[in-house]
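agent> call fold_tool(seq_1)
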Amino acid sequence: MVRGQKTEGKEETAQEQNRSVNRRMGAARERDTGAGTGAGVIEHSRQDNSPGRGGNPPPPKTPPPLMNFKVLLPFRIFAEKTGVTRIVAETREGSFGILPRRLDCVAALAPGILIYEKEIEGEVYLAVDEGVLIKTGLDVLVSVRNAIAGTDLAKLRDSVEREFLNLDEREQSVRSALAKMESGFIRRLAEFYHD
């Protein structure tokens, strides 16, 4: 109310209005709590949700899901592992990691190092050639042209160099055989044409 306003035939000041409001609030508090009589008293207990102290029990601990990992070569299955916790692969855009709950995906792999980890074995490194990685649910399938496994990167590097040198020698012998076949075919075709 504003000073000078009449209420029930008398004028109230701001202080009197405050006192009146405080008295009414105090009376309402006493009425709600049943001051002195104990009637109407409501006690609220704090709910304790910590484990072992009542409240909601903690959710049961389930082991995290583990992935099934398979590496395929054109002529055989190179590796088939279960219980894989994570995989790191390389694409032309860079490296990316795969955990069990990652969404399904497909990626074109670049030649490089693929890493998978198992709880027991730890990290295992695979030198892989170009290929494809497919993740569906908890299954991860890698299909590459060539792969070499190892747990030590230095030894793996030496193995890769030896393997690629052998491939280079084989490729050179195959290329020379193809060149001889092509030249023989062209020579015979030329002879046939002239006859």
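agent> call fold_tool(seq_2)
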Amino acid sequence: MDIGLFRGGWYNGQIMTSEEFEIQYTRLNKAQKEAVDAIEGSVMVAAGPGTGKTQILALRIANILLKTDTRPENILCLTFTESGVFSMRKRLREIIGHDAPHCLFSLLY
């Protein structure tokens, strides 16, 4: 099944695709797309306030879930603030739906 920017992925025996992912992905610049497309290993995004870090990380998590057999409970996302945890969870829920709460979001002190 081809939906344009990515082809979807298998999760729990069902094919997952996300129209919302595709819409948000097209709004990214080249450097942001590189971060989202890096689905192997860890990534650190360092940028100033309001530059889209939270959005990039949420899209990267969605991309990993859509393109690989990685399960949501095997993803760890660290942030420095409680509001960052809330925002990441909310944005990921908007992109992938009900599986977002299964990802582990935590504070880094």
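agent> summarizing second result for user.
The radius of gyration is 13 Å. The chain has one domain: 9-107.
agent> awaiting next instruction.
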